[in-house]
C-alpha cells in the first residue's frame, strides 16, 4: 500500500511540492544575503543592531581565527551560549571554516557537558562567561584545547590563559582558506537529543539537510513573507534545532531582522514587541500562554505579529483561539524533530488549519503511518501507528552510533518513535510518544536521564519518571520512587539531589514514594500504567 498523499492537493500551484536543493554549503546563505542586502539589519540585541555587512565581516573574522588556530574541516566546535549576536557569528564562522557546530544547552551541568564534549571529540568551545567555570571544571577530562569566552557585559573577569571572544576575532589574518564541501555528505551540525538507551545521541545534520529545511519552510510560508522586511522575535533558544532553523537561518535566508532575547521574561518580551514591532514569533505554547494571560497584552502592540509558528509541544485549541483573538495573528502549529533539521509538518497558511493537528507535510516530504509491531505495513486512515518520514531534511545518522542509526533509519525512512494518525485529507495528528519523552516548557526531557541519576541516590531502590499535565508548562516531571529497606528520604531531599546533578528543566517537580512499582511478568516497570493513573 502506498502512503496517503491526499495532503498534496492542498498545495496551490504557486508553491512547489518538490523543491530543488542547491548544491552549496549552508554557510553560503549569509554571504549571499550580505551581498544583496548589506545595509539591512540582520540582528537586534538590546538596542544594538548589526547590518548584514557587519555580520558577514564578523563571521569572516571568526572563520579566519579558527583556521589560524588549526581548526580544520570536520573538526567539532561547540557553542554554549544563550541567544546573542556572538552565537550567530560563531555558527556561521564555524560552518565556513568547514567545522561542525556542536550544540550545547547552556543549562547542562558538568556531567552532561563532559559527556557531549567527549562523545563529539570537541577541542574548541565558545561559552558564556557565566558558564565558564563549568567548562573549566571538566576540561581536564576532555579534549578541549581552545576556550573562547563571551561576555555580554563588562565583567572584569580574567580568563587567562583562555581568550575573550573579542580578542579571538583579532587572531585571524583576514584571509580564509577556501574549503571544498560535499553538502550532501559533510556534517554541518551535531544536534544532541536523548535516547531510549539513556545516552544522548548526536544527530548528524549535513549542510544539505539544514539548507533543505530552510528552503522547505521558505517555500511553505513564502506568501506570508516579504524578503528584506520581516522581523523575527527570536526568544526560543538557538541551541534548539527549532530556533536554529525557524528563527536564525530562515531570517538570514530572507534577509530579515532577528530580534534576539536570551530568555523568555514576559515583561521583557512584551516591551520588546512594543519597541521593535516584530512580524513573526516562533515559539512554544507556554510562551503564548503567558502573553495571553497578561491583562494588558494588547497595550504592547502585539498586533504587529502576523505569524506564529508553534512547535515542541502540543498546542491547546482554546489557547490558540484566545491568542489569535488578542493579537489578530495566526498560530500555525507544526511538528518536527532533531533528526529532521527539524520541520516536517505544519498547518498551512494557504489552506485549512485543523486545530489539534500538526498539519501537512512540507515540500519534498513524504510520510506514512505504519504498524507498531513490525513498522512495515501502512495502517488505514484514522488508525494509530508510528509516523515515518522521508525527505531531504532527514539526518545522515547518529554520531558514532551505527546500531542506533540502523534502528532509526530504515530503507530511507526516519522512524520517529511517535504514535500518530492521519485523516482523509492527509493531516497528521500526534497522539502519543513511543519514546516516553516528556515536554516541559518546550524542552525535550528523556525520563531515562533522570532515572539514571535517581538510581545513584543511596536511598533509592527503584525509580521511574513520567510527565503529568500542567496547564502552563505543558507537562511536569514526576518521579515515582521505591526506597531501599531501612532507608529514608523526603520529597525535598530528592528534588535537591536532582538540582545538584541535572539541568534545572529536568528536575522533578513532583515526587511520590511507593512500596512497589507496576511491572510486567518479567519485571519490566510499566511506565504507561503510571501515566494511565494520571489520566483517570
**Biggest sheet character:** 8 strands, mixed
Largest beta sheet: what is the strand line-up? 7-6-5-3-4-8-9-18
Distance between the termini: 37 Å
Helix segment tally: 15
Strand residues, percent: 15-25%
| Radius of gyration, in angstroms, nearest whole number | 23 Å
In words, what does this structure look like?
The protein is of the alpha/beta class and 536 residues long. Among the domains are: 134 residues, 3-Layer(aba) Sandwich (Rossmann fold), CATH 3.40.50; 98 residues, 2-Layer Sandwich (GMP Synthetase, Chain A, domain 3), CATH 3.30.300. It has 15 helices and 26 strands. The strands form six sheets. Strands 7-6-5-3-4-8-9-18 form an eight-stranded mixed beta sheet, with helices on both faces. Strands 16, 17, 19, 20 and 21 form a five-stranded antiparallel beta sheet that branches. The protein has a four-stranded mixed beta sheet with strand order 2-1-11-10, sandwiched between helices. α8 links the parallel β10 and β11. α2 packs across α3. It is globular. The two termini are 37 Å apart.
Characteristics of this structure?
single chain; GMP Synthetase, Chain A, domain 3; eight-stranded mixed beta sheet; 15 helices; 536 residues; alpha/beta; Rossmann fold; five-stranded antiparallel beta sheet
Tell me the layout of helices and strands.
Blueprint: H1 28-36, E1 41-45, E2 48-51, H2 52-68, E3 76-80, H3 85-96, E4 100-103, H4 110-120, E5 124-128, H5 132-139, E6 146-150, E7 163-164, H6 165-169, E8 187-193, E9 201-206, H7 207-221, E10 231-234, H8 241-253, E11 257-260, H9 266-276, H10 285-293, E12 307-310, H11 317-327, E13 330-336, E14 343-346, E15 360-361, E16 366-370, E17 385-390, E18 397-398, H12 402-408, E19 409-410, E20 413-422, E21 428-433, E22 438-440, E23 443-445, H13 447-454, E24 460-470, E25 474-483, H14 491-501, E26 510-513, H15 527-535
Parallel strand pairs: 1-11, 3-4, 3-5, 4-8, 5-6, 6-7, 10-11, 12-13, 25-26
Antiparallel strand pairs: 1-2, 8-9, 9-18, 13-14, 14-15, 16-17, 17-20, 19-20, 20-21, 22-23, 24-25
Helix pairs in contact: 1-2, 2-3, 4-5, 7-8, 10-11
Amino acid at each position: 500500500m502506498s502512503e496517503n498523499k491526499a495532503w498534496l492537493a492542498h498545495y496551490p500551484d504557486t508553491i512547489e511540492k518538490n523543491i530543488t536543493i542547491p548544491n552549496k554549503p549552508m554557510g553560503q546563505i549569509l554571504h549571499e544575503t550580505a551581498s544583496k542586502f548589506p545595509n539591512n539589519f540582520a540582528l537586534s540585541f538590546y538596542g544594538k543592531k548589526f547590518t548584514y555587512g557587519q555580520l558577514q565581516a564578523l563571521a569572516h573574522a571568526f572563520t579566519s581565527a579558527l583556521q589560524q588556530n588549526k581548526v580544520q574541516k570536520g573538526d567539532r566546535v561547540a557553542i554554549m551560549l544563550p541567544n546573542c549576536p556572538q552565537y550567530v557569528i560563531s555558527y556561521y564562522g564555524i560552518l565556513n571554516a568547514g567545522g561542525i557546530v556542536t550544540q550545547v544547552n547552556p543549562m547542562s551541568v558538568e556531567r552532561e557537558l563532559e559527556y557531549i564534549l567527549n562523545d563529539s571529540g570537541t577541542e574548541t568551545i565558545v561559552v558564556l562567561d557565566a558558564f565558564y567555570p563549568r567548562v573549566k571544571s571538566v576540561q581536564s577530562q576532555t579534549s578541549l584545547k581552545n576556550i573562547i569566552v563571551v561576555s555580554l557585559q563588562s565583567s572584569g573577569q580574567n580568563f587567562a590563559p583562555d581568550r575573550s571572544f573579542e580578542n579571538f576575532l583579532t587572531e585571524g589574518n583576514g584571509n580564509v582558506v577556501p574549503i571544498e564541501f560535499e553538502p550532501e555528505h559533510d556534517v554541518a551540525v551535531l544536534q544532541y537529543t536523548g535516547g531510549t538507551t539513556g545516552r544522548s545521541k548526536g544527530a548528524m545534520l549535513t549542510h544539505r539537510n539544514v539548507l533543505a529545511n530552510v528552503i522547505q519552510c521558505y517555500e511553505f510560508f513564502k506568501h506570508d513573507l516579504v524578503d528584506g522586511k520581516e522581523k523575527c522575535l527570536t526568544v526560543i533558544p538557538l541551541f534548539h534545532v527549532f530556533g536554529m532553523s525557524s528563527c536564525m537561518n530562515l531570517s538570514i535566508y530572507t534577509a530579515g531582522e532577528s530580534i534576539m532575547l536570551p530568555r523568555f521574561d514576559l515583561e521583557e518580551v512584551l516591551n520588546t514587541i512594543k519597541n521593535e514591532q516584530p512580524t513573526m514569533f516562533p515559539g512554544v505554547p507556554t510562551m503564548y500562554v503567558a502573553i495571553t494571560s497578561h491583562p494588558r497584552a494588547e497595550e504592547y502592540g502585539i498586533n504587529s505579529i502576523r505569524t506564529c509558528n508553534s512547535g515542541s509541544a502540543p498546542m491547546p485549541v482554546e489557547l490558540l483561539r484566545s491568542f489569535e483573538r488578542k493579537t489578530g495573528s495566526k498560530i500555525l502549529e507544526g511538528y518536527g524533530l532533531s533528526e529532521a533539521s527539524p520541520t516536517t509538518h505544519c498547518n498551512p497558511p494557504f489552506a485549512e488549519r485543523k486545530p489539534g493537528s500538526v498539519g501537512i507535510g512540507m515540500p519534498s516530504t513524504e510520510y506514512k503511518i505504519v504498524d507498531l509491531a513490525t513498522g512495515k505495513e501502512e495502517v488505514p486512515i484514522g488508525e494509530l501507528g508510528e509516523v515515518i518520514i522521508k525527505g531531504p531534511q532527514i539526518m545522515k545518522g547518529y554520531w558514532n552510533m551505527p546500531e542506533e542509526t540502523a534502528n532509526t533509519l530504515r530503507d530511507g525512512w526516519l522512524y520517529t518513535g511517535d504514535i500518530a494518525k492521519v485523516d482523509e485529507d492527509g493531516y497528521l495528528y500526534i497522539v502519543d510518544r513511543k519514546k516516553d519523552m516528556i515536554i516541559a516548557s518546550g524542552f525535550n526531557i528523556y525520563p531515562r536521564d533522570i532515572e539514571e541519576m535517581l538510581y545513584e541516590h543511596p536511598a533509592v531502590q527503584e525509580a521511574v519518571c513520567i510527565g503529568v499535565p500542567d496547564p502552563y508548562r505543558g507537562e511536569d516531571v514526576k518521579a515515582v520512587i521505591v526506597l531501599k529497606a531501612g532507608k529514608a528520604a523526603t520529597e525535598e531531599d530528592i528534588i535537591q539531589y536532582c538540582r545538584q546533578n541535572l539541568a534545572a528543566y529536568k528536575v522533578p517537580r513532583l515526587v511520590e514514594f511507593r512500596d512497589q512499582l507496576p511491572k510486567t511478568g518479567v519485571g519490566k516497570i510499566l511506565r504507561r500504567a503510571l501515566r494511565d493513573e494520571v489520566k483517570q
